[in-house]
Amino acid sequence: MIVNIISDTQTIEEKLRTLMPILKPYEVDHLLMMLSKTPVEINKPPEHGLIMIQTQDCFGVDFYLGELLVTTAEVECCGVFGHATIMGKEPLKATLAATVNAIIRSPKSGELDKIKPHVECFMLRLNTQCQQERKLTAATKVNFESMADEA
User: Fold this and answer.
1) Looking at the 3D structure of the chain, how many domains does it have?
2) pLDDT exceeds 70 at position 150
């Protein structure tokens, strides 16, 4: 069974969050250029940092798994602040995410219509990639019950 990851109910911010890991630098740069006419000021340029990953073991005891490299950015659009933290050393992606976060909550939210067709195109590409991966994985699936009949 192949499931679509594209949902009509997802906001553009949610779609971008889904796309961030696969967007190439030139695609992120292109999206930022399309939003460049929107009055956005960079308050805090992208910075790299480490955050501690906390989880629980099988007994429910908290422990620290390790550190995760992240990039954070902060921008302002029409008096509204946008913040973003992205996994990895990704200053352009952090800036894009913070910009979208600020624009969504500002009076200029209609500016995001400029990038919607591109985001939809990227979502279709991601969906196609996921379907291809699922088909490849399904081809290697082993049904152990049928193997018992062969023995």
Assistant:
1) 1
2) no
